[in-house]
Structures are given as C-alpha cells and as structure tokens.
Amino acid sequence: MMKKLLLAAAIAASAGTVTLPAAAAVIxxxxxxxxxxxxxxxxxxxxxxxxxxxxxxxNNRHVWVKGHxxxxxxxxxxxxxxxxxxxxHWEMSRGRWARGDNDHDGVPNGVDNxxxxxxxx
Length: 121
Fold this sequence. Notes:
Blueprint: H1 2-15, E1 26-29, E2 48-51, E3 54-58, E4 61-65, E5 68-71, E6 76-79, E7 82-86, E8 89-93, E9 96-99
Antiparallel strand pairs: 1-8, 2-5, 3-4, 6-9, 7-8
C-alpha cells in the first residue's frame, strides 16, 4: 500500500514538470523596429545553433535581446524572430523550431513521403 502511495505521489509531482512547446506568437505594433545591432557571432559550436539577436516588443517599446545558443533539435530547423511591415503596421513572428525539409521541396519531413527526393520519384 505504501509503495502505491509513493508511486502515485511521484507521478503527481512529475506531472508538474512536463513542458510543452510554446505556440508561435505574432506581435503587431505601429512602431518600426530600430536597425539590427552588429553582433559578434561566436565560432560554431557542435550540437548548437546560433540564434542571432533581435528587437523584441516589451512594455510598449522595442527592447534588444542578445543572440544566444539554442540546443540543436534533430530533424528541425530554427527560424529566428523576424519583423515584417504589412499595411502600415509591423508584425513580429517569434523564433521557433519547425520540422526540417531535407530535400528542399517545401514539404516538411514529417509529412513528406519522399523526404530525401526533391523530384518525388
């Protein structure tokens, strides 16, 4: 009985530690971001991808976020945050990981029946 209680407590405690990927958020503002800052890009680091610095929108103003290393995710490609002007306002898509596309045919590997064959034969 005591073992079952301990097991149930351990499962309940570990349930709070599960992390889910953040949804891609889009920020829309009227103010254009400042020019990107010059940043020293460190030499390549095995198992990591460099995520360059970018202007974030916090507390109604642009705030610079320094570049950092992201641990590489097998089968995924990192897309850095980006600001785009649309119809007189600015939209920022957050940095995110997306399934890779080995053959560069525009179809993510996860749904591609021929992930290494761009000619589809």
